[in-house]
Amino acid sequence: MPAISKNGGNHKKHADLEVLLREKRESLKRQVAARLDDVTIEMEPDDDAGLATSSFATDLAVSTLERERCELREVELALHKMNTGEYGICENCETPIREVRLRALPWARLCIHCASNASADVAAD
Questions:
Q1: Other CB atoms closer than 10 Å to residue 74's CB: what's the count?
Q2: Which three-class secondary structure string do you get for the chain?
Q3: For residue 50, how many other CB atoms are within 10 A of its CB?
Q4: Residue 78 and residue 9: Cα distance in Å, rounded?
Q5: Does pTM surpass 0.85?
Q6: Residues 6+ apart with CB under 8 A from 18
Q7: What sign does the CA torsion over 91, 20, 25, 22 have?
Q8: What's the pLDDT tens digit per position in 14-58?
């Protein structure tokens, strides 16, 4: 029997999104593993220009690595929610997230209304 989600749909409704999320998870895992090599410092450059370039490249790699790790956590959370029947439910207002939003951002945790309000709150701070 298919798992029933809180919003009354079944697990099969989101089967294609689950495949997409699993593929994204594997892609991000590979990217994170490869990016770890970029942040490893083998030896420091001899001159200031080389040091500045190396430092900038390392900072950029670290920022990208952190973004990819955050995205990986979001994807894993979405997959977990699929297993618990909570996928597609807004964490804030507990209403179903529209299918078009889930297709655009399969790991969305908030409906578009709550996400817009959260963005506005962050911008105001």
A1: 18
A2: CCCECCCCCEHHHHHHHHHHHHHHHHHHHHHHHHHHHHCCCCCCCCCHHHHHHHHHHHHHHHHHHHHHHHHHHHHHHHHHHHHHCCCCECCCCCCECCHHHHHHCCCCCCCHHHHHHHHHHHHHC
A3: 11
A4: 16
A5: no
A6: 11, 79, 82
A7: positive
A8: 899 999 999 999 999 999 988 877 666 555 556 666 666 667 777
